[in-house]
Structures are given as structure tokens and as C-alpha cells.
Amino acid sequence: MPWWTNSPVASVRGRSAWNCAAEMETPLPDITRFAAAEGEPFPGLDCPGPLAAKLRAHQGRLIHKWEHYLPLYERYLGCYRDGFCGPDGATRPLRLLEIGVSHGGSLALWRGYFGSAATIFGIDIEPRCAAFDGEAAKVRIGSQADPGFLAAVVAEMGGVDVVIDDGSHVASHQRASIETLFPLLSPNGLYLVEDTHSAYWDHGFEGGFQRPGSFVELAKDLIDDLHGAWHGRPASAPWAEGWLTGLHAHDSMIVLDKQAKPRLRHGMRGSASF
Q1: What is the CATH number of the domain that holds 159?
Q2: Is 274 a domain residue?
Q3: Alpha-carbon dihedral of residues 67, 70, 76, 81, nearest 10 degrees?
Q4: Which alpha helices (DSSP H) does the chain contain, by range?
């Protein structure tokens, strides 16, 4: 069964994705053409690095991932395996929040990858996900579009260093989450949004090619904000102003860096050649 019809991830209208998929007037896009053939090994298992090794050894709760995510995880998250280093240079245990618990497998993967010292929380709107609380991480039930709920979870965590949004993939939910969580994210933190191909789907995901309000269009606006010193226009996302220092776009994944934005300076060294 395709994962999108069997995932209790936060839903389009506050219900589980398996119900919404059945009730949508327009069916979800067919992505089965990308699926590994039956009997084929899990995609990405031959990738180098410790995360792929953890995935090869995984026998627990269901995990579903796009193959090309694995090297991206290593690239962006590998530096946190030994802890989180703040602006003061001190290292402490990582605090990670994953939006979208689904069957609980990815939380187990993160626990194995980041170790026992990390604080790991998962949130989901599906009440059945509460059964996973305490296995590999703490699980809290609520909507990713509820700022009060998100703030309460971060307070319980004692702060957050890395956010992975693998939730409903609905544009307004993604925006509500980042508008709440990015300001709460630690300096030197990372905000990672998965499955941003949903920004091109109008099948209940509030997307469509170049549709205003989608997460991809938000990312484009953020690139303009990054260059605000050069055009002088007001920031489209004041919640990120002065703190967004990088945006990395990949097929189906967008990653944002948070640091205090340094003052722009330009210098020269060496002798002129002519």
C-alpha cells in the first residue's frame, strides 16, 4: 500500500492522511512510478555513512524515506551527532523536534543516529501515535498549525536546535509551524522541511505551480529577504529577519540555517595586478 494512504501524519483537515486520501475529490498524484520494485532492497541502503548503516540494521517500526534524503541528512545533520555547538562554542546534547510521527520508525532512526543523550520529541495530530511515547522519543499529540501547542512542546524540551517538518505537507500548516518555531530555534540551529514537492500539488495540499502561499514560494521570498540589503524592500518574513543566514534547496527538501546575521563587510588584500 502506498505510504500516503497508510500514514497517520497530521492531515489536511485535522484528520489522518489515510482518511483524507480516500475522501479527496481529486486523487493524490501517482508517485508509485518512483517506488522500489517489490523485493528490491530499501532505497539508499548502499549509501555511505552511519545513517544508512542504521537504516540497514533497522528492524522496528515502519520507516519510509526518499533515497536521496540519506546523503542530505548526513550533510546537514551529521555535525550534530556529537552534540550541539552554540555561538559560545560550548557543546551540549542536541534537542530535536520532528513534526509527523507516522508509524514511529523515523524517531527510532534519529535516536540511533544521535544517541541516548539527545532530547528527541515527535508531534502528530493522530492520537494513535501517543502509543509510541517513551519508546525512542517523547511524543505529543496536537496540530503543527497550533502556535500555542508548538510553543508548549518547545518549552517542555527546554528549547530546540533542529526541526524536521515531515508533517501534513499542507502549505498553511508548514507556514504556521515555521513562523512559530524558527524564532524559537537556537542560534546555529537548523530547520529542515521534507517533501516540498507537495508545494506543486493542489490535491488538498494548497499547492500548485508557482501558487502563492506554498512553501516553495515562501522559500523564494526568503531568498529575496536574504538579499534585503541590496534591494531595500521590507522583509516578507519578519519572523526570520536578522537570523536567516542560508537557504538550501534540494529536490523535495528545503533547509534553513539560523544564525545572527553578520554585518556585511568587504575587504581587499594583496597587490593589484594592473
Answers
A1: 3.40.50.150
A2: no
A3: 160
A4: 17-23, 50-57, 69-77, 105-114, 147-157, 171-184, 215-226, 228-231
pLDDT digits (tens, 9 = 90+) for 110-137: 999 999 999 999 999 999 999 999 999 9
In a domain, 140, yes or no: yes
Q: How far is CA 101 from the centre of its chain?
A: 12
Alpha helices, DSSP H only, in 66-140?
A: 69-77, 105-114
Enclosing domain of residue 198: 3-258
Q: What is the pTM of this model?
A: 0.85
**Cα separation, 191 vs 161, whole angstroms:** 8
As a whole number of angstroms, the distance between CA 188 and CA 42 comes to 33
**Residue 207 lies inside a defined structural domain of this protein:** yes
d(CA 179, CA 2): 31
8-state DSSP, 48: -
- The total number of structural domains that make up the chain: 1
Closest CA to 196 of 218, 181, 224: 218
Indicate whether 4 pLDDT > 60: no
Residues 38 and 81 sit within 8 Å (Cβ to Cβ): no
∠ CA 49-52-55 to the nearest 5 degrees? 150
The catalytic site residues sit at 169
CA 151 remoteness from chain centre: 17
In a domain, 264, yes or no: no
The pLDDT tens digits of the residues spanning 252-274 come to 999 999 999 988 999 999 999 99
DSSP tag of 199: G
